[in-house]
Input
Amino acid sequence: MKIALGLEYDGRDYYGWQLQAGVASVQGALEAALEKVAAGPVRVHCAGRTDTGVHASLQVVHFDCAAVRPATAWVRGTNAHLPDSVAVLWAKEVGEDFHARFCATGRHYRYVLINRPVRSALQAGRAGWFHRPLDVDRMQQAARHLVGTHDFTSFRAAACQASGPVRSLSRASVRREGEKVIFEFSANAFLHHMVRNMVGALVHVGKGGADPAWIAELIELRDRSRAAPTFSAAGLTLCGVDYPEHFALPWTHEGEAGR
Output
């Protein structure tokens, strides 16, 4: 059987999604729990490998397993063996042609930034923070330059293992909700640290460090050293993944349960 799962997790306790020796990972916690339900080894593949401290309100994964279990067992049984910071939301048997990563056609991220003079205790690890006033209108003007198909080398981590830097960004929006500034990005795929680097550049514009058109210049320069520093992982959440309709998955975006 091949099983797809919808998953949410708080990334504060983990050194990212990927299994690593000697440190806690979301993949490690999930595989350990699934192995108890499956009564055998399980290897899980995800739609997008999140970094240390990054959260997910809707991650999609799949695994192959010889054990036959009802969907309720893969959900409730697995959750019974997971730490409180990770939860399976749904489970569905899928065909052999499904792959959580390679069949995904889009991914959606949200970044929450606290914008006030002092840091937040209640949002620690769940939101980024910037102490100086930010001009959200200028940031939104700058964000428009990111939309489209571009070479995102200026927003790519040095350790990025992607085969190429070109990505198609369909959404880049910035809005204020009280003391929070909310960034939302959608793309066919993202490079390593791409979202955090885009947030860093937009914050630089918002504090008056550059004009909105600077973002377009960065794209043309294709030089990571000319861009702003990488922003904190704390406020970043993977909140949805797109798949072709024929896979008939349950909800794959935050807030879609019970549609």
